[in-house]
Amino acid sequence: GAVVSQHPSWVICKSGTSVKIECRSLDFQATTMFWYRQFPKQSLMLMATSNEGSKATYEQGVEKDKFLINHASLTLSTLTVTSAHPEDSSFYICSARGLAGAMDLSETQYFGPGTRLLVL
Amino acid sequence: GQNIDQPTEMTATEGAIVQINCTYQTSGFNGLFWYQQHAGEAPTFLSYNVLDGLEEKGRFSSFLSRSKGYSYLLLKELQMKDSASYLCAVMDSNYQLIWGAGTKLIIKP
Question: Which of B30, B42, B50 sits opposite A111 (nearest CB)?
Answer without folding.
Answer: B42
